[in-house]
Amino acid sequence: MPSSTAQDRLPPAPYAYQQLRDPAEEAKAKALMETLRCLVCQGQSIADSDAPLAGDMRHEVRTKIAAGESPDAIRKWLVARYGNWVSYDPPFDAATALLWLGPLLFLALGGWLAFGRFRRGDADGEGGA
Questions:
Q1: pTM
Q2: 32 partner at 20 to 30 Å CA-CA among 9, 48, 78, 128?
Q3: Which helix (H) or strand (E) holds 111?
Q4: Torsional class of 93: left (φ above 0), alpha (ψ -120 to 50), beta (otherwise)
Q5: What are the pLDDT digits (tens) for 30-80?
Q6: Burial of 90 (0-12, 13-18, 19+ CB in 10 A)
Q7: 38-63: string of b/e by CB count within 10 Å (b at 16+)?
Q8: Can you tell me the distance from the alpha carbon of 77 to that of 90, in angstroms, rounded to the nearest whole number?
Q9: Which helix (H) or strand (E) holds 13?
Q10: Phi and psi based region of residue 19 (left: phi greater than 0; alpha: psi -120 to 50; beta: remaining)
Q11: CA distance linking residue 99 with residue 102, whole number of Å
Q12: Residues 23-34: b if buried by 16+ CB within 10 A, e if exposed
């Protein structure tokens, strides 16, 4: 039996679906969970995902919040454990530079191509009269 199937049969971690008793702590945990990507679903935050791994991550977040850890410290711990992919807002570094600069490069390329196309169109229009 594959290990992933065996893991799905384990009961969920206690805080996977149970909120913290302190509303302020739960609000902090919820705000952090909404900024973390589910590694299984990839399109959902761990707050919205029903994947077992997301439940384990929610449990870790709530347990660490209840223990008094700051959301920033928890985020750093999760990034160290799972990589920058876990965050919806990855930092700017060598590994993510293309992610951040790619849209600007495509915009500049599109502008350059459009400018060349319009300029060529103007030159074609002037010679026909």
A1: 0.66
A2: 9
A3: helix 97-127
A4: beta
A5: 999 999 999 898 789 999 998 998 999 999 999 999 999 999 999 999 999
A6: middle
A7: bbeeeeebbbebebbbbbbbbbbbbb
A8: 14
A9: none
A10: beta
A11: 5
A12: eebbebbbebbe
